[in-house]
Fold each of these.
Amino acid sequence: MHFTFGAPYFLLLLLLLPCFLWCREYNKNYYFPKLAWAGKESALLSREAWLKMLIYTLLVTALAKPFVYDEAGDHQKKGRDLILVLDASGSMAQSGYSEKDRFKSKYEAALDLSSDFIKHRFDDNMGVVIFGTFAYTASPLTYDLSALDSMLKMTAVGIAGESTAIGDALMQAIRTLSYGKARSKAIILLTDGYHNAGKNSPKTAVALAKKKGIKIYTIGIGKRSDYDGALLETIAKESGGKSYAAATAEQLKKVYKEIDTLEPSPVRGENYLNERLLIFFPLTTAFLLLLGWVLYPKRALLYGGSQ
């Protein structure tokens, strides 16, 4: 794990810390009948000043956005720009696809296996496209796999309509991939139906993918008669990918394992992997110190009788 700041320039505000000791807003005169009664108090010995400095430092630290990230996330990455294209049409609600849990729908089983696949693609810049009657990008390309997995789990059957627009799904995936910088780009298309909706034909999408050097791996799930196996094989072959058939969840798991062996290619990423913000800790500490300063009934004693 590594530690850094997302906005380190805010740390320049710490240069103002000496003002808490020596800068004065105004001077106030005190008169003593005897000079001996006037004590000498150094600013360096004032507990109140040091408390203010601590609270100020904590607030500036929070403003600088501290966070930790995994070692693999900041330098040279290996992998590819990879888009998962998942069918969320009405037919994906059918149960019985998983032998271990017959009550799970095909979509739920596919989500579980897709989530497991994502967790093991540490070096890939990944995104997700969901499609039905229309297609949309559920998550753009990102190295933050935990966030990607969370976005994936927020989807459901029917969220994009009941039909199957394979052409639009592939076009949306290609558009999403256009923001990536990897040399190797790939699409994994998972569907259980026939192309029957959308503005774009699969043929047009495949031609564009081929032009851009994007491989498409297709997976037909469920019974062979449920989906257009010939179309999926053509899409994969024309784009330089491979077509798979997964009649059960167990077979889909094997397919994902095979795809997981794809050769990585170098890609430089400026994003951080598994970023975890730490703003909460300095803010909470500063709040508790401020609360104690305001509510403590004997602040005069705490600060050496300065009030």
Amino acid sequence: MALDAVALHAVVDAGKDVVPARAQMATTLGFHIILACLGIALPTIVLLAEFIGLRRNDETALRLARRWSQVMAVLIAVGAVTGTVLSFEMGLLWPGLMRRYGAVLGIPFALEGLFFFLEAIFAGIYLWGWRRLPPWAHWWSGTPIALSGIFGAMSVVAVNSWMNQPGGFTERDGVITSVNPWQVFFNAAFDYQVPHMILAAYMVTGFLVASVYAAGILRGRRDRYHYTGFAVGFVPAAVLTPFQIFVGDTAARAIARDQPVKFAAMEYVPRTSRNVPEWIGGVYVDGRVVGGVKIPYLDSLLVGFRPSTKVIGWESVPPDMRPPAISLIHLCFDVMVVLGTLLLLAGLWALYEWWRRRRLPPGRLFWLLGLISGPAATVAMEAGWVVTEVGRQPWVVYRLMRTSEAATTNEGVAVTLTLIVILYAVLGVGTIAILRMLARRWRGGDAEEAAVPYGPPDVPRDAPEGEKAR
């Protein structure tokens, strides 16, 4: 029997309710994390557009900022719903975890709640403040939204990084007797996991914004409005991509040190050895990799910068302590790396063209890359979370609590999973419908929206198509 199947059966046998509980959590988190990324980074993109507009008296940038702020409001509202579901799931699906470690996890979760309230309050002020506040006062009213999104993300990811590298508490006979909040928040995995997630959020948001305007340009809307919308999203995301790759490389080496079995699954390392090759692609079946490309010594070089570096294999622990679905972990890791590299190349292409000719690449291939950059960044981010969560199994708190100990023993999880899928399908369709409705209204030149806040005089409704809002 293949190793993946053995490990999976071991996990399932350890607790029958683990699979449905994890499926519901994965469904909820997989949907919410996209909204979370937009909630973290879209306020900064909006503020960047408004800053450009105010600094340069740029009508186009101000119009983009005004419209994007409406999109931001919609996404914050939907994200509040999906985030609330997640908060209830922590107690309902994982009572063992919260019963034992609630005193530890409650601190960063409480901070995240405070930052979310601040974000919501200042989002209301910012939306209300268009044309009501002085220009720069209005811009400054938006900065707490961006900062709250970042600090809220730090708080949530601090919980996940603590689950990967727990510490900062004293436990006697299964009871938490004291907690050091500083050590809990700034745990051993915080330094690489939090920057990795926040950078991912900015990449996902920037490239998604760029994708929308790349689609318009491919349809022939080659006006300043679309080029500006593309650049304001694409440039920050492209600038951050090499930093993300550096942080990811650092994180991989830290995982090889702190969670060697997870790293072994990521890189197909069954036995502890030196001169370990790197596998690109492939499926692990019956003790061998099928369909992958083998690069000799590269894995050892990446871990310790020497071919002789020892890399720990998953056979260093018993089968019931190995993650299930080894091939899934490895392929998701490869997807994340390949898509990140593709986004890096797209940014370098744009940089080269700007350096040589002070323009973005005019060819259709570049704009097709721009179109897929948003979905590519989103898929890479989701794949990274699969690696993080599946790779930690069978532990919910690494080496302290198994997932089977944390999961609910109540029946009915399949029913709630079905309800969650229906709810999120309705939310997803509804959100897309609202955003498309806004886009149609903007392309039609809505009279109430025509005036540019703080900018030049209003654009007449009968102005040439290139000058109208789209």
Amino acid sequence: MSIPGERMDLEGKQVLVVGLGKSGIAAVRFLLGQGAKVVVSEGGRSLPPASTTLRWLRERGVYCELGGHSSELFAAVDIIILCPGVPLDLPALAAARQAGVAIIGELALAPAYLRTPVIAVTGTNGKSTVTTLIGDILQAGGQKVFVGGNLGTPLCEYLQGPQDADWAVLEVSSFQLDSAGGFRPRIGLLLNISPDHLDRYPDYPAYAAAKWRIFAQQQPNDVAIINRDDPEITRLAAANPVAARVFAFGGTGEAGPVGNEAQPAGPAAASRTDSLLRIRLGKDFEAVEKYELAGTELAAEPNRQNALAAVLAARLAGCPPEAVSRGLESFRPLPHRLALVAEVDGVRFYDDSKATNIGAVISALQGLRGPVVLIAGGLDKGGDYRLLLPVLREKVKAMVLIGSARAKMAAALVEAVPATSAGDLAEAVRQAYRLAQPGEAVLLSPACASFDMFSGYAQRGEVFRRAVRELARERSGGRGGGEAGSSPGRAAVVA
């Protein structure tokens, strides 16, 4: 059963929300406001009977199924709204499909209920940075912006308010695009594609196809922004032409618009050389706009590429060049994305806990001066760790592996780099410190999910930061344990 986007009417409908995370609660609030009869099914989250969430649901007459998903409940409703991360192969969902129940995500509500034009950003890596940076640039130009989606505030929360923003800038994940229905961004960005979430998708092409869905509903007056240097995106663009006007960005080359008849390997609308960005938007290859990243927080990779995509989107959204420059200058990186935590006895410690896939680790290592001691591991997501071998051989002198994936990672990577294991992250920090020399770096860039040891990547990053700060305090007396003859150590905590 399909949902007729702009004609959707939720009043009086039996709507099941699957998942009780932040997005699920926002969806329940929105649906109640539309007069829907709401029920909830939560399969994994353990909630005590006296929890504030359950009490809030009961007060509003919302039935909540906990500890599993019943096929009977799923097949008995009119519409099912999936929260991000809910597996698509649940037996209860199969029963609902057989019963003709409409199954959508919150993005599928946008055609009927969202009155604000959308800039949507997806990709394996860099989504949060680019989404935030676009919002900052537009705000520097005096526009009112809602920034959210998979990042921060759920879309359903914005739908409940006055919707008075000039633009809604949304980070969208492949999980959300799987159930996006008629979702149509005015400007859609696909930053990159590399293997990820292969514990959810049957194979890499299926994951890549999910990313490409960001352009599926676009029309000729919309804009699709793609990375012309990404081989998977190049393949998808050749095999799946989009209706929107296509603009490409890449690392080098002349800047100019790309028509739908051209291949992404052709002229780019945006390019960069070192820290200088070049943007050219006019049909007739008018003057190139130049934006300098030197002296900003975006001067190093992978943020130079992120900035290139964000500037192109902001200019196509009508933001003036002077506001773009202000936004670039004022931007501050998001937490746990290749952030320098401290320098201890000449060893730099970087927190890149958000790097939960192989492509993100490759980008982080390429952005650092070697040699590097890499702390990696966590909950395996089905990726092929051998893709790391070339950059490991070039940049990494040793690895310290943690988490449930450490044996699999060691088996795949030990041919390139010596590896040890640690029982927890604090132990890993100390091992890495002993392996590193002054002038080298220790990088936490896990290539894995965090849920085997932590509540999420943010907690993992905070534990790493605490361990580094504790090491810095201990080492303030000198490298080598303060033994006789050792020179005084220096520990500078940056963040």
